[in-house]
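input
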Amino acid sequence: MTTVSDQDLLYFVAALKNHTQYDLTDYSDKSLKRRLQKVLSDHKIDLLTLITRIKKDEEFLNRVINDITVNTTELFRDPQIWHALRYRVLPQYKNRKNINIWHAGCSSGQEVYSMLILLNELGMFDSAKVLATDINPEMLEQAQKGNYKYRFNIGYLDNFDKVIRENPYNYDEYYDVPYEKYFEINKTKDYIQMLPFLTDKPFFRRHDLVVDGNMMFAKFDIILCRNVIIYFNYELQNRVFKLFYENLFPGGILVLGLHETIMGPFASKFEKKGLYYKKI
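output
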């Protein structure tokens, strides 16, 4: 397989930024390098050829962007955000009969299952209604199956440990939660399979954030849209923020990617609370 160096990655990101509408400057280097490496391998081309083609062939560019930006999710990605959800956000809803959660741009679903696992650990699984949407039908199909490559995801088990087994605010606490409580790991066949009680829980729907609006005609307590808006221009970002604002309950929580922020007219309509936003 072609190896992508740090310099290769910088060259690729710069070429995209200078010759297309895509700016991946703040994208996770680790994830981007892995996906760029896979694109080069799948198409059996070198980096220079790839860059030459994306400059001239818009259809090929769209395929490459789809391959690179789609499925950019991990189990408990960015554990510090999940710590905020576990210890700051979700306890506010502990005694509620219903809690509505929307994963917008859910990709292949690991974030959805992360939330369900966390809800279950907090005794909030039954009260939650979880909507998971994405523009890509192939990703939704994979998300519904909850089946992932073991070797590709093995590093994410560390995230599980950090969020579910450990308490960052009290290192003396350790919760002995087995992986088998939530998913089956088959190293020989190279897969991690989420258990049926998890895969049966969410409502998975195809949805385009830019044009579809709120397809569920319901308001939400928590909306997660992580590492999606960085691919939108300023105008589209604000249309999406407007959608989220209008469809959150008063005091509702919006969670963006670690390097994403609300700018423009909707910045004054949300209060930043560390790693998440609260609707004012």
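quick obs: The chain has a mean pLDDT of 90.
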